[in-house]
Amino acid sequence: MKGSHRVIVESKKVKYDFVLKRNITILTGDSGSGKTVLIDLIRDYNRYGTDSGVFLSCDCECKTINNEDWERQIEETSGNIIFIDEGNRFLISKRFAELVKQSDNYFVLATREKLPTLSYSINEIYGFRESEKFREAKQKYNEIYHLYGEISENNPVNPEYVITEDSNSGYEFFEHLCTEKGIKCASA
């Protein structure tokens, strides 16, 4: 699966509207910010359809996975967007990372935990905040926003210091690059 996919999930009380651009998207936020509500709405829609009171719009199937038989579900699913809520212990496992890497699905992971076994873009980490779009209405609109901002030619990053995680090849690469740019570099 490639490209971007717009997902709209809506109930009488809350609405989510966002675009996925890569195979792994991280949703983070404080407790009560709406991560689990989003996944519960998708689960309800898959279980009860329109009788759930949930509206779901996407160009591909959206599904949820939990601890039960998660490996088989991922292996047997293709071309879907898979939503997984925090609290599923398999999220940090090497086996999960292997399955994600081999899969053609997109994964939306709602978690506050670090996921060192997965390689995902910093541009695909989003937080939740309540939007003012429905301020006067009773519906709550949860807006998803870039947690770390966008880096582009129009919005460059000019650090004074660069700190690398390792002291081997990663450090050597950044030390060489930083020396050319006149930036101080150190390993952690």
CATH topology label of the largest domain:
Rossmann fold
Q: How many distinct domains?
A: 2
Going by helix content, strand content and strand pairing, the class is alpha/beta
Helix segment tally: 4
Helix content: 10-25%
Q: How would you sum up the major sheet?
A: 9 strands, mixed
Q: What do you see in this structure?
A:
The protein is of the alpha/beta class and 188 residues long. It is built from four helices and eleven strands. It has helices spanning 35-48, 70-75, 94-102, 169-181; strands at 5-10, 14-20, 24-28, 55-57, 62-64, 81-84, 106-110, 125-130, 140-146, 161-164, 184-187. The strands form two sheets. A nine-stranded mixed sheet has the order 4-1-2-9-8-3-7-6-5, covered by helices on one side. A two-stranded parallel sheet has the order 10-11. InterPro entries: P-loop_NTPase.
Question: What layout of secondary structure does this protein have?
Answer:
Elements lengths: L4 E6 L3 E7 L3 E5 L6 H14 L6 E3 L4 E3 L5 H6 L5 E4 L9 H9 L3 E5 L14 E6 L9 E7 L14 E4 L4 H13 L2 E4 L1
Parallel strand pairs: 2-9, 3-7, 3-8, 5-6, 6-7, 10-11
Antiparallel strand pairs: 1-2, 1-4, 8-9
Give a nutshell description of this structure.
With 188 residues, this protein is α/β, with parallel strands linked by helices. The protein has helices spanning 35-48, 70-75, 94-102, 169-181, and strands spanning 5-10, 14-20, 24-28, 55-57, 62-64, 81-84, 106-110, 125-130, 140-146, 161-164, 184-187.
